[in-house]
Amino acid sequence: MRLLEELFTRIVNLFAVIAGLLLIAVMVATVVKVGMRAGLGVGIIGIDQLSGTAMVYMTFLGAVWVLRQDGHVTVDLVLITARPAFRRKLVLINSLIGAAVCFTVAYFGALTVQTSIERGIMVVQAIEIPRAIGLIPIPVGAFVLGIEFLRRALAAARGADANDNNEPALGA
User: Are 31 and 39 in contact (CB under 8 A)?
Assistant: First the structure.
């Protein structure tokens, strides 16, 4: 079980690194595009389209790392004032709902990717790319996020903090 946890942590960290690198790439590409447009009067075709696709990747690949770091928005007023046992129940319920939503999104996302591949659907804009390329991170990221929600639910059911065996949250 420890090996699976280590593997999962490496996947989560890899997704976070990919999301971070994509963020930097989008920023640099946008600055270069604006600079070329202002300085040379020419732009780069497809930067906006690729940036939009990169944002989908950043969102779905980075979400699980943010959840693991307790970086998602929470209603702290309710959690801080709740007794520890009730707080764990709230985290358990929230995590189970989150997992159910994520696995549903992953399932239907995978069906959509499969349909896009089978039908050869292309996104026709400045750059013509297969639609599936922009959709792939949705089922992958949602599935991994669902696993993280289940991990948090198990930790709450055991009476532990979800981050007991991992790096501390960013604010800690």
Answer: no
